[in-house]
Every structure is written in C-alpha cells, then in structure tokens.
Amino acid sequence: MRKLFLITAILITAAITVGSLISIQSSIKINVTNSDKLVHFGAYAILTLNWLLVIKNHSNLRKKVVFVAFSVLIYGIVIEALQGALTAYRQADYLDILANSVGIITAVLVFMKVFVKYQRN
C-alpha cells in the first residue's frame, strides 16, 4: 500500500507543478472572487495527506510529519516564485501561499486525528 501512496504522491506533485506553470485557457469562467484559493487549499491538502500516508508507518512519525509539512510549504512557495519569474500568464500571489498553508495544516490535523489515532489503538 505504501508504494501506491508514493506513486500517487509523486503524480499529484507533478500534476500541481505542471498545472501551476502552464497556461490554461478555459472557456468556463468562474465568477466567484478568489475561487482559485479553494483549489489551492484542496490541492495542497490532498498533496500533503498523500505524502503523510507515505510515511505513516515510519518511526519518529511526528518529526517526519513536520518535515513533510515544511517540505510541501517550501514546494508551494517555490512554485509561486516560479510562476512570477518564468511565466507571463501567471503571477506569484501571497494569498495562494496562505491558501496552500491552510490546506497543509488541515491535512496534518486530519492525519494526526484520523490515521495516527487509529494506528495507536
């Protein structure tokens, strides 16, 4: 099962990287202000949870959870910086980093409450 989580986490990481750096021309327009923040929240929550499931059965779990959360946060910041530096059709946005951070924290809380709780019992 760990291999499946690892493959899924790598694929999600790659999908977020590509989706964040390519131009997406959509004929569907969403008129909700800052609706992309929900996408950032969800994407980074799912990304973080998948990486946490990869390390679920490791020793020293709390340190590894902090490492995963910090790594995903740094990844999100790097992606935002690359959007501002490498693309003309995207811009770096501090609110995106905030939405990513809330997704990461939510994933960690869910992981610690649901998965770690049941692992101890």
Tag the structure with descriptive keywords.
membrane, elongated, about 120 residues
Distance N terminus to C terminus?
A: 20 Å
The helix-strand sequence is HHHH
The radius of gyration over CA amounts to: 15 Å
Q: How would a crystallographer describe the biggest sheet?
A: none
Give the % helix: over 70%
Question: How many domains is the backbone divided into?
Answer: 1
- The coarse silhouette is elongated
- By DSSP, the count of extended strands is 0
What does this entry look like structurally?
Keywords: Membrane, Transmembrane, Transmembrane helix. This is VanZ like family protein. The chain crosses the membrane at residues 37-54, 66-85, 97-116. With 121 residues, the protein is mainly α. It has one domain (2-19, 36-120). The chain has helices at 2-21, 36-54, 61-86, 94-120. α2 runs antiparallel to α3, α2 packs parallel to α4 and α3 (61-86) runs antiparallel to α4 (94-120). It is elongated. The protein starts with a helix and ends with a helix. 23% of the residues are buried. The mean pLDDT is 87.
